[in-house]
Amino acid sequence: MRLRFALLGSSLWVIVGAGCSGSVAHQAATPTTVEAASDTVAATATSSAVTGATTSVTITTSDISVSTESVVATTSESVELPDTPAGNQLTWVLDNLTDATDADIEARFSTGFLAQVPPAGLRSGIADLGELTVIEVVSSEPETLVVLVDSAQGKLAVTINVEPGEPHAIIGLLAQPGELPDAPTTWAGVEDALGKAGAASTYTAVEIGADGSQRVIHASPGQQSVPLGSSFKIYVLGALVQAIEHGEIRWDDKLAITDELKSLPSGELQDRPSGSTVTVQEAAEKMIQISDNTAADLLINLLGRDQVEATLATMGMGAESQQRTLPFITTLELFTLKWGIEAAELQRYAAANVDRRREILLGLVGRRPDIARFDPAVPIATDTVEWFATPAEIVAAHVWLDAYRERPGFEPLAGILGTNPGIPLDEQIWTEVAFKGGSEPGVVFLGHLLHRNDGRRFAVVVSATDPSSAVDEPQAVAASEGAIGLLAAEP
């Protein structure tokens, strides 16, 4: 077993609902992450970051100004935590949360977070994990920290996110299983791991020619279109690239964040004050790197639904996948369709043709999802109300974007696509990478385009779905990591 690497930037989901099968100061993003959850570990409200099949529930929310005191960055009988805003806040969580008063908790967590998981839920959730001992700092940035801890539930990867400004209120707290299955070392092992991930699974591993052609090295038979989760955001990025190329939009243009355009986490922008602004480049970065849903909806609103839809074929999506995807919904529309209307209304939408669907979406304006109805273990309409593509079509989309990375004026693309590789990669072998993943209850999707150090390009796409239960996301991650490892040695 290996340390679990958080799939930041893969998750669509950060919905919070009480009474879902348990979760600790569970999360939201995932996104980043993903940034997910059947098999939850503790018990409080849930908000998924990489929702689908691991114990993750993240809650990222709101801005609040609260004063915090400086804390010593150590915890008893554990490794020293970094003396950063995130490190100091996690130190307090580990040492004090179980017995903290409501007032103590309110001084540490953002109001938006506490609106989703109240103080009593936080205390009971952390208590269910028993004594926590930090055994490894996995990654550390000033506002984000990932550590491995020993708990009564076994090893857990704990992620904390805090606001960038004083007093650094906690806006995200995520606990996930701390270990993954070993990455397979044969193609048969890849197929076996993926077969364990969900009722339906598919993958493709290809070499990409100079002309963008795909030489299949190993792949599942069939290659039908599958639900993408947050991987749909790669098409929004493509539409943005086209608009910038045509001079219609600039990277430094400003977008206004409004209450009407705020979606649910994963992400951060939903927590910024209404009326504040974000540049197009920052929105694109957050949409891909931490799977920010509000960022995606801001960009769809800027570009227009029609323009995004027109880009699908340009980026290589075929007619069947387009028919299943259209109209190209926003994240807020998807949340509302699945958790904001009655089941009969959702069924009518799923059965309707594209024109009727567009009419129904107009009737959703002003309606919001009911997060109390969210259960991370129960997939909803994943085979009808989603965004869809085949693995080969996602590879084509990545190849299309890859052609822009070296063009003048598109310098931000390398960072947007490559800052978060989704899983650990050997940088000596893979000199450049583009990654976008997606997940929701019943869906995990991982898509990589990789430049090898000998100049050759490869792509790996992994999908696991189950229409009736959560999928085993760690197995899907292991399959993806194994396939990439095999491509590293591909002659």
Task: Describe it.
- There is one protein chain.
- With 491 residues, the protein is α+β, with helices and mostly antiparallel strands.
- The chain has 16 helices and 15 strands.
- It has helices at 85-96, 102-106, 111-116, 119-128, 187-197, 233-245, 280-289, 293-303, 305-314, 319-325, 331-339, 343-351, 354-362, 391-402, 412-418, 473-488; strands spanning 2-3, 133-141, 144-151, 154-162, 170-177, 179-180, 200-208, 214-219, 226-227, 254-256, 277-279, 388-389, 430-440, 443-452, 457-465.
- Strands 8-7-15-14-13 form a five-stranded antiparallel β-sheet, sandwiched between helices. A four-stranded antiparallel β-sheet has the order 2-3-4-5, covered by helices on one side.
- A hairpin with a 2-residue loop joins strand 3 and strand 4.
- The longest helix is centred in the C-terminal third of the chain and has 16 residues, at 473-488.
- The protein is globular and about 60 Å long.
- The chain starts with a strand and ends with a helix.
- Residues 1-8 and 13-76 have low confidence and may be disordered.
